[in-house]
Amino acid sequence: MNKQLRVLLVEDSEDDATLLTRALKKSGIQPVVERVEIAEAMKKALEKKEWDVVIADYVLPRFSGLDAVNVLKKTGKDLPFIIVSGKIGEDTAVEAMRAGAHDYIMKGNLTRLIPAIEREIEEANNRQKRRKAEEELRRSYHELADTTAQLEATNKQLRGEIEERHKAEKHTLEMKEHLQNVIDSASEVIISVDANKRITTWNKAAETVIGYKQKDVLNWNIAKLSLFENIQKLVDLMKNLSTETQNNYEDFVIITKNQTKKILRITGSIIQEKEKQSSGVLFIGRDITREMDIHGRLLAGNSYLIPERSNTAAVDLLVDLATSGYSGYMITRMNPESIKNTTSPANIQLYLLGQDHGKGSIAIPNLQILLQKIKELCAKKKETVILLERLDYLINKFSFEKVMDVLYEINDHIAKNKCLLLLRIDPATIEKTQMALIENELQLLPSQKIEGLAIEDEVYDILRFIYEQNQNNAIVPIKKIMGRFTLAYSTVAKRLQVLEAKGLIFTKKQGKSRTVTISDKGKTFLHKRQTV
C-alpha cells in the first residue's frame, strides 16, 4: 500500500537527500520532501506547511542537528525528529536524544529508517491523543471547577436565604410570642373567633375568670361551649357588628367551668383581613360581677321591682347608681323638698306624677306622657337609671290593665336601650294577683339578708364613716380611716376584713393604695343595725 509522507529534510548534501528519498520510495512510501540547510529556512517551512516527520543531518556547515531540534521545539509542534548522520558517536547521539531528538540512524543503515519513522509517527499520534485527552480532562476539570464554584455560590446563596428565612421565622415566632404575652398581660378577657365561630384566642384573663384553659377550648365552636347563659344574645351581637360603626358594650351572664355565674361586660369588633373581608370577631370583656354585687347584680336592660313600704332603700340605690356613673331620674309623688337633701349629691332629675305642682317641677299627668318621657330619658344615654315610684297611684287613677299595658311597653324600651328601671311599690296597696302579674314582668332585686347580722360598735363606726364619705363622693383610703379614728394599720385592716367578710363593704386597689366603698347590703344594715 502506498501512502504519502511529508518530510522536512535538514541536509546540506543533495546526494544524501536523493539517497534518503530513494530509500523511502523503495519502502512503498510516496515522500513529499523539502530540503533546508539553515535555521531561517527551517522556521519558514515549519510555519507554512504541515509535516509528518523531520529528518536532520547532525553536522551542517551553518547549522546542526541540535540547532534543528531547538528550532522545532520553539514552534511548539510535536513532530517526530530523527537524526540521520554518517559521523556521530554514541555520546553525541545520547546528547541529541536528551535535547529532544526521538531517534538517530546512521546513513549507512537506512533500513532502520522506515521502522523508526513509523514508530515515531505512531508515538507522536499517541502523544497527541494523550495531549487531547489531557486537554479534555483539563477542560472538564475547569468546567467542573466552574460548576463547583457556581454550586458553591448557589449553595451559599441558598444557605443565606435559608438563614434569612430562619431569622424571619424566628422573628415571626418571637413576635407571635410577644403578642401572646401582650394579650396574656391584659387584665381584660380577650377572646377571638374565626368566621366559623371557632375560638382562636383565649388569654390568661379568660382562663382566670372563666376557668377553662386555652388548650381546652381552642378550635371549639363558642356557641357549643355552654359558656353563655343566653347564647342567642351573643349570636345576635356577632350578626349586628359593623366595621364602620363603634360598637357599645353588652353585659353577658356566663357559666364558668365550676358552674358559677359571672357577669362580663363585652365589646365586639370585626377582625378584617387585608382584602377587608371579615375573618372573625374579637371580644374584649371585663368581669363586672363584683361591681354588680355592689348594686345587687343589676344588669343593664332590665327592670327591677322593689316591693317595699318605704322608699328609703330604693332612693339610696338610685343615688348610689347615680354617683357611680349613671344618669339618675326619679318619677314620684313625693314633695321635691322632702327628698332634696337625699338626691342632691347625685344630681338626680325629679319628675312628679300628677298635675303641675308649680315651683319649677316637671309634671307627668297621664300614662302616655309617662311612656314618652321614659323613652326620651333612655334615648339620651345608655347608662340611665330611672326610679318610678307609687305604681299604686297610677293603678288607682288609670286602672290596672292600662298601667300594665304601659308597663309592658316601658319594659321593652328599657331592654332595647340597655337602661335600668327601678319600680317601687308597697305590696299592701294592691291585690295579690296584681302583684303576681307585676312580679312576672319585672325582676326582683337579689335579696340581701341581714337578719342575725351583728358587728361591734367600733366596727359600726367605721362603716358609718365610710358611708358618709361615699355619700359626699369622697375616696376612702385606709390611711383616711386610720387618721379619723387614730388607729394602727393592722387594727383598721382587721375591722375592714370583718366588714368585707359580711358583705358590708368592698375594697379595691387604686394606685398604690386600697380604697373602701360601702355595699348596698352595708347601706341596708345601717338602717336596721344590730350591735353586740
Structural class: alpha/beta
Distance between the termini: 147 Å
Strand order of the largest sheet: 14-13-12-15-16-11-17
Number of β-strand runs? 19
| Unreliably modeled segments | none
**Radius of gyration over all CA atoms, rounded:** 57 Å
Counting DSSP H or I runs of 4 or more residues, the number of helices is: 19
Shape field: rod-shaped
Sheet having the most strands: 7 strands, parallel
| Residues in β-strands, percent | 15-25%
Mean pLDDT: 83
Helical content band: 40-55%
SSE arrangement:
Layout: E1 3-10, H1 14-26, E2 29-36, H2 39-48, E3 53-56, H3 65-75, E4 81-85, H4 90-99, E5 103-106, H5 113-185, E6 189-194, E7 199-202, H6 204-210, H7 214-217, H8 231-240, E8 250-255, E9 261-272, E10 278-287, H9 289-294, E11 303-306, H10 312-322, E12 327-332, H11 336-343, E13 349-353, E14 363-364, H12 367-380, E15 384-388, H13 391-398, H14 400-417, E16 420-424, H15 432-441, E17 443-444, H16 457-471, H17 478-485, H18 489-501, E18 505-510, E19 513-518, H19 520-527
Parallel strand pairs: 1-2, 1-3, 3-4, 4-5, 11-16, 11-17, 12-13, 12-15, 13-14, 15-16
Antiparallel strand pairs: 6-7, 6-10, 8-9, 9-10, 18-19
Helix pairs in contact: 2-3, 12-14, 13-14, 16-18
